[in-house]
């Protein structure tokens, strides 16, 4: 089979032939249709991140995936050939209480692996085999957007974590909320667009900021969803005196993260999903003023990474609801699809203004 491999920490990416994986008795073989490309993939190709499986020098890239079941091992039932599926990313450490209860996104030991990222090969290959507990069935109607279920799961978890922090001040029996909660989404790449979608489905009033005008694909999609779009290229001052109950950050921009703290309303919550460059130079921060504000205004900052199976399933439900609410919208979430052979062009540069670029592994599909 063809596979796109890298050699972390050496900057590289090569399309090669490798033996197809052996199907175990308790596994499912999946034919890969397509894989999404995200910032983590770019970081791995550039040698900033990533780790091959134990005992190997190479890693098959790719964690955002969509495929169809080919066959199942003799001890597996319930997975029919042709079934559309997405596989989750993180694999259990098999030791801590969270991994053993299906919540590896909260792994306490740090000894997890992640397909296509850290210690376990990924999905940018023509086939993979997987245990059924890591596969999520996808309805055929979601075929145009299902490759985005992995970033959707990340946005789902981030919003749940933020909502849990907001709920620490609820309920107030007899005194219902009179206005919708106000949310700000920083960044309009895949995570930001998907977070905006989920928040609108949850009834939030949503504002999204980026460094582009409203003519971009993201700006047009936000308008359809009823999200206010603000070009913050000159800074968050573009938002004026607006303050927000929940802010979802999806940029990894260090200075912006500190600016966002100043936009929190009383009792507000900032959820960080972007991963900053750890080697970036230090920046000056008015730490005393920010910490004073957080204490006196009951504010919270939460980091959120990865997502377990339940958030993939929530993504399926929300994509289905979005199809009903905004016909024709989800098909526009993928900016472009390119054949796997063009990986150099897709992975070789980060395209500003794109929502999601996808590498098509099975051109016949």
Q: What is the CATH C-level name of the largest domain?
A: Alpha Beta
- Quote the average pLDDT: 95
Number of E strands = 19
Count of structural domains: 2
Helix content: 10-25%
Number of helices: 9
CATH architecture of the largest domain: Alpha-Beta Complex
The outline comes out as globular
Please report the distance between the alpha carbons of the first and last residues.
16 Å
The gyration radius over C-alpha positions equals 21 Å
Give the uncertain stretches in residue-range form: none
What's the CATH H-level superfamily name of the largest domain? Medium-chain alcohol dehydrogenases, catalytic domain
The CATH topology assignment of the largest domain is Quinone Oxidoreductase, Chain A, domain 1
Describe the largest sheet.
Answer: 7 strands, mixed
Helix and strand composition category:
alpha/beta
Order of helices and strands: EEEHEEEEHEEEEHEHEHEEHEHEHEHE
Kindly describe this structure.
The protein has 365 residues and is an alpha/beta fold. The protein folds into two domains: 2-144 and 334-360, Medium-chain alcohol dehydrogenases, catalytic domain (Quinone Oxidoreductase, Chain A, domain 1); 153-303, Rossmann fold (3-Layer(aba) Sandwich), CATH 3.40.50. The chain has helices at 39-45, 97-100, 149-166, 190-201, 217-224, 254-261, 287-296, 309-325, 343-347, and strands at residues 2-7, 10-17, 28-37, 59-60, 64-72, 84-87, 90-91, 113-115, 119-120, 127-130, 135-137, 182-186, 205-210, 228-231, 244-249, 264-272, 300-303, 336-339, 357-360. The strands form four sheets. Strands 3, 5, 6, 10, 11, 18 and 19 form a seven-stranded mixed sheet that branches. Helix 3 crosses helix 4 and helix 3 crosses helix 8. The longest helix has 18 residues, at 149-166. The mean pLDDT is 95.
